[in-house]
Each structure stands twice: as structure tokens, then as C-alpha cells.
Amino acid sequence: MADTLERTEEDLDLHTVVLPDRPWITIVWNDPVNLQNYVTWVFKTYFGFAPPEAKRLMLLVHHEGRAVVATGSREEMERHVVAMHGYGLWATLQKDDE
Questions:
Q1: Residue 7 — φ and ψ, nearest 5°?
Q2: What are phi and psi of 15, to 5 degrees?
Q3: Which CATH number belongs to the domain containing residue 54 in this structure?
Q4: Distance (Å, rounded) from C-alpha 69 to C-alpha 44?
């Protein structure tokens, strides 16, 4: 009976539920300074987006005030935000709501 009450570390690991961590996102915000062509160029140059995708994201920024341009780990999104600031764009990161 004592054997049934004892659990090994291995047994406990088998019963651990691991929930996936929500990814982080990089958001680029609209600003009154940068031209649409420049924002499109940044998206193509830095993120490697194809021209139609870069333009689509730029139009989201322009018309909706923001666009999610990347998803991933917090460290990776922090690098993207710093890079966007280096290009003169307004950008932030946050946990993905979805």
C-alpha cells in the first residue's frame, strides 16, 4: 500500500500540464512624420516582406493606426522594436491577445 502513495519525480513529470506561452507581437504605429513609401521600404528592407505584403501592412498602419508586423519570443520582438526605432518608426511590443 505504501508503494501506491509514493510518486517518483518521473511520475510527477508525466502528470504536469504545460500550457503554451502566448507569443509576443511587434506593433508599428502610425505617425505624422514618415511617408508611406518609406514605411513600405522599411518593412521590405528589415523584415524581408514581399512588396505587396509590405504595402498591405503600411496601409494598415496608415488607415487603422497600427499593424502587427512580427510575432515571436519577447527577446526577438524587443530587437524588432529597437530596430524600428532606429528607422524612426514608432513601435511597441506586447503579448499577443489571441
A1: -125, 135
A2: -100, 5
A3: 3.30.1390.10
A4: 11
Q: What is the DSSP letter of 77?
A: H
Model confidence at 19, in pLDDT bands (50, 70, 90)?
A: low
Q: Range of 60's domain?
A: 26-95
Q: How many domains does the chain have?
A: 1
Q: What is the pLDDT of residue 31?
A: 95
Task: List, edge to edge, every strand of the sheet that includes 24-29.
Answer: 66-72, 24-29, 90-95
What DSSP character marks residue 20?
P
- In the chain, the amino acid numbered 18 is V
Give per-residue pLDDT as tens, 25-83.
999 999 999 999 999 999 999 999 999 999 999 999 999 999 999 999 999 999 999 99
Place of cell 522594436: 81
- pTM of structure: 0.77
Query: CB neighbours (10 Å) of residue 70?
Result: 21
Helical packing angle, 74-86 and 36-47, nearest 10°:
140
